[in-house]
Amino acid sequence: MAKPLTTLTSLPMPLIRDNIDTDQIIPSREMKSTGKTGLTDGLFAGWRYTEIGGRKADLDFVLNDPHYTDSQIILGGTNFGCGSSREHAVWALVEYGFRAIIAPSFAPIFASNCVRNGILPAIIDADAIAIMEKADSPITIDLSTQKIGIDEDQSWTFPIDEEAKAMLIEGLDAIDLSLKMADDIATWQEADRAQRPWIYLGANQ
Amino acid sequence: MRKWGLFLPEPSSLFDKLWNSHVVTALPGGGALVAIDRVFLHERTGASALNSLAQAGRPVADPARVFAVTDHIVDTRPGRTDKTLMPGGQAFITETRAAANAAGITLFDVNDPDQGIVHVISPELGIVLPGCTLVAPDSHTCTQGAFGALAWGIGSSEAEHAMATGTLRLNKPKSMRVCFFGTLAKGVTPKDMIMTVIARHGAAGGKGHAVEFAGEAVSALDMEGRMTLCNMATEFSAMSGFIAPDAKTFEYLEGRRYAPKGSDWDQAVESWTQLASDTGTAFDTEIKIDAGGITPMVSWGTSPENSVGISGAVPDDAGKRALEYMALDKGQRLAGTSIDAAFIGSCTNSRLSDLRRASALLKGKKIASHVKAICVPGSSRVKREAEAEGIDAIFREAGFEWRESGCSMCFYAGGESFDAGSRVVSTTNRNFESRQGPGVKTHIASPETVVASALAGVIADVRELL
């Protein structure tokens, strides 16, 4: 179950490149076990180290900048999280300590993976993100009011669907919620089975 | 019989019909609980999802509708076992096998005759059907939308949700129709169609949308071509891509193992025939493309949107990072760029028709001596059928390696890769940094373009061979 997220204040780490794909967030070669943890060393491995497969920090990469060591927020570019559906990308971000990503747009599978793991994918236009990058000062995210602000004069609102918002704020488990609707599901399937018997496969295939 | 349009306003879209016919109930906040008909797992993430469910004490609700396959990291060299070139990869295979057996789901294992890339074998076995919802923890699940199904990629948590409840909690995306009118020119393929869409409208061009591909150039495609077209809907940031089923769809599926039989088949086809967007349906977004104006495409950068026609050049507004990574300059023509390797395979272009077209161009020729070339059939069935036609011999004699089926070198998992920094022309779907190996420069293209380039030793225009 994900940790609830209501408000968050942190210096955001700028990584403003378009189309950051999940192969960059965590390369396949860094997904070494069938578990969901032990992934922090693999986070942004291709950009973070001087050599592929190595562990020597490339000091030019923002994740290695001590200024951003405690950042819990990433400022990103358009189509953030595109590519592979690997949830390891989000598990690695969570394990590293990130709780929110602010970008002009997100790839759909990645955004859904974020919400399921307690990371807020906040959609903000590129101009506002550029202002936050330039300010290079802590920002506050208030999920209940859907606001992100540097101070009282500079703040922006972001859209999020009601269910994702509730899931994040309350740290809810989606499977638990849906299992409570087991009767609805059974009723639907019974009616559907009469109309589409071929969908319900038996042991005789 | 399923009334797809029930409770829907007239006219309604194919997507509306697919969506509405699976809504179990509305959710507070505007979303819906959507019934999932099929779940397909693979060994890269299957064990993780199944073990996580088991640890939570949540059984798979209907194991007969959940499948798994070993495709992502399985060795593709002859005589393969559970051992992989990827360090630690064997555990992914053995743990997925154990978890699949414990959950009672059907597994197409390493040396099963039905083994292959998930999006190749699901249609081969009739697991995907028109009008069904199918999800898999693999972004290219949209490939299967070619059958008039709503099929899309999900993460592991969503896979657990789908298996435990038979549903997913979703917000309905907007609708888009991409209409290809006219006729494709010779040497131009479905891969070039989808690369054109992404190059023109961007890798985020389909964001927030479910995309129907339509028009005479789409209807003219065979089922395998339609799969290639739908395959890269995810590279367009769309939830999925799909095509209304027709006689070709039904002919492809009839008699497949998991397809309906007898009177069920007749009833199914009758209902599937209604699965089309009604005349006059409005879409949130509509794109029209002249198929006759499409040329063979090739990517130059590190996103699929970085693609141009084969006779084109790297654009003047190309990003610095991408140019540095790809070791190309603005204004540089793609054709004539020397290559180190050629790859034919992946869920995009590894089916029998892809291999037939490639081998027809290769027959009796040799690839350039400095090019390492590999062909990986999309499934064990494709491999057998190709071998029965002598296609393997043509590939081998031309200088290609001929492999066992799997995802293979579409991505680098720490095992096999192309040489560091090498330049590869590839039928795969992603030209991301280091996707195919450390520093590997990937140019995605059609099988025809890959063959023409392998023969010439440089990126080449297949139309010059025709």
Structure description:
- The complex is a heterodimer of chains A (205) and B (466).
- By secondary structure, chain A is α/β, with parallel strands linked by helices.
- Chain A has eight helices and eight strands; from the N terminus they run ββααβαβαβαβββααα.
- Chain A is globular and about 60 Å long.
- The two termini of chain A are 37 Å apart.
- The model of chain A has no long low-confidence stretch (mean pLDDT 96).
- By secondary structure, chain B is of the alpha/beta class.
- Helices cover 29% and strands 17% of the residues of chain B.
- Chain B is built from 15 helices and 19 strands.
- In chain B, strands 5-4-3-6-7 form a five-stranded parallel beta sheet.
- In chain B, helix 12 (352-362) runs parallel beside helix 15 (447-456).
- Classes of the chains: A alpha/beta (205), B alpha/beta (466).
- The interface between A and B is large, with 63 and 86 residues.
Which descriptors apply to this entry?
heterodimer, A: 205 residues, alpha/beta, four-stranded antiparallel sheet, 8 strands, 15% strand, globular, B: 466 residues, five-stranded parallel sheet
Walk me through the topology.
The complex is a heterodimer of chains A (205) and B (466).
Chain A: E1 7-10, E2 12-15, H1 22-25, H2 45-48, E3 73-76, H3 88-96, E4 100-103, H4 108-116, E5 120-123, H5 126-135, E6 139-142, E7 147-149, E8 155-157, H6 162-170, H7 174-179, H8 182-195
Parallel strand pairs in A: 2-3, 3-4, 4-5
Antiparallel strand pairs in A: 1-6, 6-7, 7-8
Chain B: H1 14-20, E1 23-26, E2 32-35, E3 38-42, H2 46-55, E4 66-69, H3 89-103, E5 106-108, H4 118-124, E6 133-136, E7 150-153, H5 156-165, E8 167-170, E9 174-181, H6 190-201, E10 209-214, H7 216-219, H8 223-231, E11 240-242, H9 247-253, H10 262-272, E12 285-290, E13 297-299, E14 307-309, H11 320-326, E15 341-344, H12 352-362, E16 372-375, H13 380-388, H14 391-398, E17 400-402, E18 423-426, E19 441-444, H15 447-456
Parallel strand pairs in B: 3-4, 3-6, 4-5, 6-7, 9-10, 9-12, 10-11, 15-16, 15-18, 16-17, 18-19
Antiparallel strand pairs in B: 1-2, 2-8, 13-14
